[in-house]
Amino acid sequence: MNNELKLVIFDWDGTVMDSVAKIVDSMQIAARREGLSVPSVQAVKDIIGLSLAPALKQLFGELNQQQVDDMALFYKEAYLALDKKPSALFDGIVDVFDSLKNRNIKIAVATGKSRVGLNRLIEQTGLGHFFCDSMTADEAESKPHPQMIDDIVDRQGVDKSQVVMVGDSILDLTMANNAGVKALGVSYGAHDKAKLLTREPMAVVDKAAELLDYLDAKPIVA
Q1: Which domain holds residue 199?
Q2: Total of domains in the chain
Q3: 222 within a domain of the structure (yes/no)
């Protein structure tokens, strides 16, 4: 099988968009409203990418259904209040998308956001023309289950040897490992380089522009 790069799948929060701080603030606000113990910044960073139910369980333990419903509502309200001005895109990420598109390399998104949330941000940022496909937390098993990657790969008709997953969290890199595709980490989001390297990606970069050192059209090697 020719393992020339054909598809790059990006996480969103902490990889494409500098939204981690808003997610942390929103979860802490929601916890206060619900009367739960307020999680630390790093604890919230560690659940970014998970679907709601496993995220809440990791942060707060077992909650009853009313508490889950309340937290979902309070988090959404807090995030929308903080997100009246969209978070910035990371410097250099649009140039990465431009380079990939100009070389006919497909670009997709696999995110812990909801479909409604992702669509809203894609529209606000005007990035939709870059993406051939996307998967969200309400359409698949939660990261690090490989379903998001598996479904995108199947729909795009490429071999997994031709795919790279890019993310800022060990959830992203573990998902890539579980799916059997190569991974690249970015250290400017939820997790630092040392933590990302525990999942044995191809590399961990400190700036988005550095992704192009690895996302060229030559055969993918670890």
Answers
A1: 7-18+89-213
A2: 2
A3: no
- Do 201 and 93 belong to one domain? yes
Place of tokens 């941000």: 121
Side by side, which strands form the sheet with 7-10?
133-135, 106-110, 7-10, 163-167, 182-186, 203-205
Residue tagged 């060229």 (tokens): 216
Same domain? For 182 and 96 the reply is yes
Q: How far apart are CA 97 and CA 107, in angstroms?
A: 8
Q: What is the pLDDT of residues 57-80, one digit of tens each?
A: 899 998 999 999 999 899 989 988
Query: Distance between alpha carbon 96 and the CA centroid of its chain, in Å?
Result: 16
**Cβ-contact 16, 93 below 8 angstroms:** yes
Strand partners, 7: 106, 163
Question: DSSP label at 144?
Answer: T
The one-character DSSP state at 221 is -
Over residues 31-38, the mean pLDDT reads: 95
State pTM to two decimals.
Answer: 0.89
